[in-house]
């Protein structure tokens, strides 16, 4: 499979009066063409910072990509001039945020907002732009597009507004769409409809998608692969099947226990006790140690290396590492 995006050893820091926050600490993942990768984790785990780094939207200062590479179609986005990056944003790579209202201008018609995005980057006539806008309204499932184009954001429901935001993000036919918590502000039925829409858009346009969410339940239907983040690191990746049916990291298992499941109605939802570590001074060992029911002595001291459980399933946990037994024996002797 052809890779459209490859992130290697990404580090992002923020300098504050209180010290330096290590928000992203050596993140690795890739995205194949035409697939949906979900990046999942609690708030503050670095998932939004990672996506902002891909868009080169980390405010510098106080933020900084302090190390690593982000290859998009073979080109390292961390190295290109801002002018080139600006030409890619909204054109080759588009992003959708949580709150559709802040993404739309309340004083401008939907048509102008759609057309403006297109005409900013491409030389198209008003007529062709309008035709494209109508096509996009149709693609995202807005009824009566001709009349609706003349309306303003407040005349649409929250779910419809998010559909318009998606239409704007897609009008330049980007190859990569990054959606950061795109359904969090919506109620459950609308959430499901928007997720189905992503699925449909991907089938029709072949766009590659990164879906960022704190809710594993959201990705159960549409993610091809899942990367689980914790304390600025990706701690487990796998196909949707591998993560849902064969999770190996205790944190991933904990996340799954906190997701409502239709097939296990009698099961109580169990939140994970404790809080993530302070990223001003992150632990040198496994960051989950303080919350992990299986923590061993080695966990706190040494960060676990990545273990490959299959071609697609990878985990950083000492429980999966053959060397843990040996290290345990050694520490026991001392
Ligand atoms: Fe738990 Fe240790 Fe695995 Fe971390 S490395 S998740 S502390 S068993
Ligand atoms: Mg976020």
Low-pLDDT stretches: none
Output the structural class.
Answer: alpha/beta
Radius of gyration of CA atoms, rounded to a whole number: 21 Å
Helix content: 25-40%
In whole angstroms, the N-to-C terminal distance is 48 Å
What percent strand? 15-25%
| C-alpha geometry | globular
Assembly level: single chain
What is the overall number of helices? 13
Number of domains: 1
Cofactors, ions and other ligands in the entry: iron/sulfur cluster, magnesium ion
CATH topology: Rossmann fold
CATH second-level architecture:
3-Layer(aba) Sandwich
What string, H for helix and E for strand, traces the elements in order? Answer: EEEHEEHEHHHHHEHEHEEHHHEEH
CATH class group: Alpha Beta
Report the strand count. Answer: 12
Q: How confident overall, as mean pLDDT?
A: 92
Strands of the largest sheet, in order across it? 6-7-8-3-9-10-12-11
Describe the main β-sheet briefly. 8 strands, mixed
Give descriptors for this structure.
334 residues; alpha/beta; Rossmann fold; eight-stranded mixed β-sheet; four-stranded antiparallel β-sheet; 13 helices; 34% helix; binds magnesium ion; ATP-binding; Oligopep_ABC_C; transport; cell membrane
Description:
One of its GO terms (molecular function) is ATP binding. Residues 5-256 form the ABC transporter domain. It is found in: Cell membrane. This protein has 334 residues and is of the alpha/beta class. It has one domain: P-loop containing nucleotide triphosphate hydrolases (Rossmann fold, 3-Layer(aba) Sandwich), CATH 3.40.50.300. It has helices spanning 47-54, 82-88, 100-103, 110-121, 126-139, 145-148, 158-170, 188-205, 216-219, 240-245, 250-257, 297-301, 323-333; strands at residues 3-16, 19-32, 36-40, 63-72, 75-76, 93-96, 176-180, 208-213, 225-230, 233-239, 307-308, 314-315. Magnesium ion is lined by residues 43, 48, 180-181.
């Amino acid at each position: 499979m052809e890779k459209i995006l490859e992130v290697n050893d990404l580090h992002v820091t923020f300098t504050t009066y209180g010290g330096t926050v290590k928000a992203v600490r050596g993140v690795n993942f890739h995205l194949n063409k035409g697939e949906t990768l979900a990046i999942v984790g609690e708030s503050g785990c670095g998932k939004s910072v990672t996506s902002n780094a891909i868009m080169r939207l980390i405010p510098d200062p106080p933020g900084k990509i302090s190390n690593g590479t982000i290859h998009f179609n073979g080109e390292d986005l961390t190295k290109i001039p801002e002018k080139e990056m600006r030409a890619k944003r909204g054109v080759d790579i588009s992003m959708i945020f949580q709150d559709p209202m802040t993404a739309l201008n309340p004083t401008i018609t939907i048509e102008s907002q759609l057309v403006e995005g297109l005409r900013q980057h491409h030389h198209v006539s008003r007529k062709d732009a309008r035709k494209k806008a109508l096509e996009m309204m149709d693609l995202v499932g807005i009824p009566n597009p001709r009349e609706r184009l003349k309306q303003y954001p407040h005349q649409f429901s929250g779910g419809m507004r998010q559909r318009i935001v998606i239409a704007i993000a897609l009008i330049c036919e980007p190859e990569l769409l990054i959606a950061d918590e795109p359904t969090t502000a919506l109620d459950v039925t609308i959430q499901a409809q928007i997720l189905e829409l992503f699925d449909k858009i991907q089938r029709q346009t072949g766009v590659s998608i990164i879906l960022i969410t704190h809710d594993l339940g959201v990705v159960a239907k549409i993610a091809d692969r899942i990367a689980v983040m914790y304390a600025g690191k990706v701690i487990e990746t796998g196909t949707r099947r591998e993560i849902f049916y064969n999770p190996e990291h205790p944190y991933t298992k904990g996340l799954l226990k906190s997701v409502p499941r239709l097939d296990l109605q009698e099961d109580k939802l169990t939140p994970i006790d404790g809080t993530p570590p302070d990223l001003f001074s992150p632990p040198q060992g496994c960051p989950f140690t303080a919350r992990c029911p299986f923590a061993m002595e080695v966990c706190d001291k040494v960060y676990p290396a990545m273990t490959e459980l299959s071609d697609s399933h990878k985990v950083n946990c000492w429980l999966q590492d053959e060397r843990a037994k040996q290290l345990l024996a050694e520490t026991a002797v001392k």
